[in-house]
## 1
Amino acid sequence: MSTNQALIDFQNIRVMRGSKPVLDDFTLRISSNEHVAILGPNGCGKSTLIKTITRECYPINREESSMKILGNDHWNVFELRTMLGIESNDLISECTGQALGRDAVLSGFFSSANIFSNHIVEPAQRKLADAALERLQIAHLAKRPVREMSSGEVRRILIARALVHQPKALLFDEPSNSLDVFARHTVRQTMSQLARSGVGIILVTHDLGDIIPDIERVVLMSNGKIVADGSKQEMLKPERLKELFGIEVEIAHKNGHYHTW
């Protein structure tokens, strides 16, 4: 593991949803420049982990627990959101209204889903939004309503939104959900390009196909706990995935990509 500053450093945290612990005695450290996949079945606590990183969920205060993000245990949430870029399924439903592509990207500066009358967009912010659109080769979507875009185009708009404030790391939440074969390929190519540019990446998924060749480390999650953590080659083995998902699997591996059936 890299010795650089930790992006997240969670030690023995417990996060409740109602009366149920969803993350329980959960310990995870990820350095700011790492490319890490967190793999697990639906319902294992992956979404709660993302919400804990973004400070939408908070762990119980316990003496044996600690939680730091980029070295700090106290954050202004709006300041933290300028340090992390989030591409999540929750944003899909929020950004499918009247917003134009550029406005959806600009909304990343305001933690919203569109640009509203109370928002003042500075010229420098507009320039950064256009640069993010160009970087993802979707400048042609700047004036198109999000509701008229394909699922793949919306995903790329949301990645541009996550990048617009030049964050220290990107969090991807099930990035290929509801995408066709071409759109999945495009989004995964985009993730690889970002990884190679030096941006830290945390990928949360249940789909091995999302684990791009640039991912170096895989963390396996089950029932709110980490059950294994190591190199991609060590973690993505049939016997480990059988235990994780409860089903016999075969794995194909080609050019750094993994697939199961």
## 2
Amino acid sequence: MSAQRWIETLSAAGLAPLRDEPLSGHTTFRIGGPADAFVVARDRGQARMALAVAREAGVPVFFLGRGSNILVRDGGVRGLTLALGGDFELIEFLGDNMVRAGAAVPVPQLVVTCAQKGLSGLEPIVGVPGVVGGALVMNAGTREGEIGPLVESVETLSTAGELRTVPRGDLNFGYRRSSLGPELILSAVLRLKPGNKADIMTVVGRNQQRRLQTQPIHTYNVGSTFKNPPGRFAAQLIEQLGLKGHAVAGARVSPRHANFIENFAGAKACDVLALVDLIRERVRAANGVELELEMRVVGE
């Protein structure tokens, strides 16, 4: 099936695909080439339909959340780029201190909404800029805690259109990784703990303030660039080499936090990758440490 035809099929199904859509407008880096077709599915039926069209056409599918941990290469992404909205932005309280969150719910919104209900456990991740789906894939967290231990089950949709619920016992979470594979995450059920609303909100506010003071949240970035090596802190290793503020074209190491790379002047993906290589080489030479990327690099 030709590109023109399968994209027209998406249109005929009411999915409103955007053709050659610049992904720079869908990532927190504000960097990225075009997607062949970009679709936002607003319910399970639309998600299934989009995947069915891609499957029949034999084109790859890229699942995009808020784009907060992604660097899209300048050549863009081939095939279908699928994002979620609508029903997947809902939060539902189930009783017994459990909450169901759609994959497209922003993490800070989920944390605050649960805190207002007197439910505790999510406070450590209030500063995570992504959505629930992405947070699950990478087991988002801070030194104080991660999302993984709170997960009771995850609802997924395979590229073959099969819905399934993955129970806690079949999930594995580690440092910035999980066993959640190539399937599309639709929602998750989390088990929290009851607490005093005022006390929980105080902790949330304190964590938000700490983030404001230590991270460049008002610049275009993807959060932490590198994972922390065992027993070390990536930011400290980079800062010790005097690399804060170091730039390659429009990309620079944040002057505020050395493990953040900022798009401060119309950076391209190639600028960011050149800066990543430079940092890795300097840290390797000075400390014998191989820094591993936390952000994902996608596209061509």
